[in-house]
Design the sequence.
């Protein structure tokens, strides 16, 4: 267990988050998973904490669980996110509040608490899931609130990387295109795939592999890794 990390994954009940949990556990790491709908659990290498990640109290419980059960925090994967594609003037106050709660509050509190824990042992890694739409807007996918929040996470990632570089703590992001996940109904896959220069959607494993790469790359920090089938390069 000397090489085993302690990894926190948010939005871990399904999709990319659940696959990320599986991948880290398969590599022998210990994982604390959190989501609103996750089933609470305590196992030798796995703890699940249910709650709203946008709530500071939930974020504190998650980090405390990592320290209580495994003694430290090595990696935080900020995967939880909400995406609502609407014309800008059609967003409601409820849409705005929900997206800010998960995409921004859900990043802010747990990242604060996790970095505090990482500082105690002089190393750590924060990797956040953003979106290629923050870099390459698409008129077919009106998504200002995704750009507002996830674009902010890209900027925050670079800022954290510089602020904590000498403290041994890295910060990176994975910027996906459209990925086959429970978020997208199968009947939409052909149209969504056509949005990418490579002509298909990405797989959840593409994002998980990018997370694993960044977590194993000690000289990489401040990187926004586009895993988007060429979308960010052009159309």
Sequence:
């Amino acid at each position: 267990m000397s090489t085993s990390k302690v990894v926190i994954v948010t939005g871990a009940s399904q999709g990319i988050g659940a696959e990320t949990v599986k991948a880290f556990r398969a590599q022998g790491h210990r994982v604390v998973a959190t989501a609103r709908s996750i089933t609470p659990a305590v196992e030798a290498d796995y703890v699940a904490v249910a709650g709203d990640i946008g709530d500071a109290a939930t974020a504190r419980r998650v980090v405390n669980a990592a320290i209580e059960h495994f003694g430290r925090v090595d990696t935080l994967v900020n995967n939880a996110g909400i995406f609502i594609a609407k014309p800008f003037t059609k967003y409601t106050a409820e849409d705005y509040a929900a997206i800010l709660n998960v995409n921004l509050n859900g990043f802010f509190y747990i990242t604060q608490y996790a970095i505090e824990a990482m500082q105690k042992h002089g190393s750590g890694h924060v990797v956040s899931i953003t979106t290629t739409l923050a870099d390459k807007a698409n008129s077919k996918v009106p998504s200002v609130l995704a750009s507002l929040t996830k674009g902010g996470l890209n900027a925050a990632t670079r800022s954290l990387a510089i602020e904590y570089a000498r403290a041994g703590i890295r910060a990176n992001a994975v910027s996906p295109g459209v990925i086959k996940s429970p978020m997208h109904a199968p009947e939409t896959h052909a149209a969504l795939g056509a949005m990418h220069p490579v002509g298909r959607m990405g797989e959840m494993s593409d994002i998980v592999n990018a997370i694993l790469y960044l977590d194993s790359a000690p000289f990489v920090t401040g990187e926004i890794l586009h895993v988007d089938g060429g979308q960010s390069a052009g159309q």
In short: The domain at 6-227 is CATH 3.40.50.720 (Rossmann fold). DSSP finds six helices and ten strands in the chain.
